[in-house]
Amino acid sequence: MVNDDHLAPSLATLKPKRPTFSGNKALEISEPLLFELGRDGVSGVDIEESEAFTPRLGGQERQAALDLPALSEPEAMRHYVRLSQKNYAIDMGIYPLGSCTMKHNPRLNEEMARLPGFADIHPLQPVDTVQGALELIHECGRYLCTLTGMASVAMSPKAGAHGELCGMMSVKAALAARGEDRRTVLVPASAHGTNPATAALLGFKVVTVPAGEDGTVAAEMVREICAKHEGDVAALMLTNPNTCGLFEPQIVAIAEAIHEAGGYFYCDGANLNAILGKVRPGDLGVDAMHINLHKTFSTPHGGGGPGAGPTVLSEALAPFAPLPLIAKTEAGYRLVETAEDCEEKPFGRMTAFHGQMGMFVRAFAWMLSHGADGMRQVAEDAVLNANYVRARLQDLMSLPFPDHPSMHEVLFDESFLEETEVTTLDFAKAMIDEGFHPMTMYFPLVVKGAMLIEPTESESRASLDLFTATLRDLVMAATAGDTSRFVDAPRFAPRRRLDETSAARKPVLRWTPPSGEADAEAAE
């Protein structure tokens, strides 16, 4: 028989405030914290008392029990299932985060990643026992080079920022090989924040390239900045399509300008989904570009991982790719682990191993199942969907750059809300009540109150029709003065609007029992 005495205080508190006795609303279960559920003397397993032993931790052994909640196995399972039901997910609906490419992840990819020999692989296995895995990583890298028109690829970076670091470390190594100590890196004002952060981490001085009135970078502006820092320009870090969702029309001239100044061209590959199979970055003059396998190539991402950010390199930077490398020989595939074992000049080793094998398997399965024509259609459909969203909303929502067609994402600003009391944040919160994850807000920073929407190629016309119809209804409500629908939102989410500023500045990272419980424990 289950003892419910520990629930009595919380139920007594809930009854006056909730429409039901339990606090639940049908399948919407009111779920306390794990620490609130836990109670002494409960365990999902039986652990025998350990035999006497002599500690070998030099006096560093724990003196008190772990401060963890105690639950039975069914209670723990139900807790996490209930939490998962409160989370939005790509398998529940459209995930319109701009610059994130949150697309459907085909289950075929998951089946392949779970095959024996991939799912249970270990990085320290003898090389002759992982030939198939090494071949897959090598072939995945070859496909990436073919798609981008680049000479080489480093497969070990773990994510976008890690890939950026790889590309810029290759630049730094190439400059050192030339006997030059260039310190200036040009970064557009609309860039992802990781771009200037990566450059600064490596000791470069970041110089901002302002965006033009049309949201793009002018080649003449790049030339002027290069002339001002003559002999010191190491690289340009540019995203194309850029974070405003626009293709950089002067990108070839920009590449020529940076090369004439003696620098290298790093391209942020976060938005590769828009040009996949349509444009090869290498043909545009790019020297290095990271690729997010967990975005463009449809492997799950979010929540901290797993991720993979291979970095493709031009002929100028290929010799400086980091270790480990995979080499194809007549006898099979081998891992190149040391600089002495290769003819190139690797800048070092960024990470111990190649990373999570499942990332490569899912991406390669996705590429094989799409083929060249299918991947080209991915880009075409992604751009089509973004422009469909634009066409459906541009009469009610304001476009900061109306003269350029959108690529894979469409950018709106908050001008259409100026005569209302509703902000971009309010608008996004109201979307939660409608069952939609909000778009990316307040980014890129070059646009006031930015709302960046990326539907990806995964969404059907019916999905986009419902999404845009909902946004139209919200816009009309805001302009009609129905501010309560926004300032109180979200009203139907498991938690109402939080004080996000205080939460960020004064985070509470440790749960403590309510004062009554703490006093009772102290008394015991």
From TrEMBL:
Cite the Pfam families for this sequence. GcvP2_C
Reaction(s) the record says it catalyses: N(6)-[(R)-lipoyl]-L-lysyl-[glycine-cleavage complex H protein] + glycine + H(+) = N(6)-[(R)-S(8)-aminomethyldihydrolipoyl]-L-lysyl-[glycine-cleavage complex H protein] + CO2
Q: Where is this region: Disordered?
A: 497-524
GO terms under biological process: glycine decarboxylation via glycine cleavage system
Protein task: The glycine cleavage system catalyzes the degradation of glycine. The P protein binds the alpha-amino group of glycine through its pyridoxal phosphate cofactor; CO(2) is released and the remaining methylamine moiety is then transferred to the lipoamide cofactor of the H protein.
Q: Which residues form the Glycine dehydrogenase C-terminal domain?
A: 380-473
- Record-listed E.C. numbers: 1.4.4.2
Q: List, alphabetically, the InterPro entries matched.
A: GDC-P_C, GDC_P, PyrdxlP-dep_Trfase, PyrdxlP-dep_Trfase_major, PyrdxlP-dep_Trfase_small
Q: Which UniProt keywords apply?
A: Oxidoreductase, Pyridoxal phosphate
User: What lineage does the source organism belong to?
Assistant: Bacteria, Pseudomonadati, Pseudomonadota, Alphaproteobacteria, Hyphomicrobiales
State the name under which the record lists this protein: glycine dehydrogenase (aminomethyl-transferring)
Q: Which GO terms describe its molecular function?
A: glycine binding; glycine dehydrogenase (decarboxylating) activity; pyridoxal phosphate binding
- One GO cellular component term, please give it: glycine cleavage complex
The record's listing under PANTHER family reads:
GLYCINE DEHYDROGENASE (DECARBOXYLATING), MITOCHONDRIAL, GLYCINE DEHYDROGENASE, DECARBOXYLATING
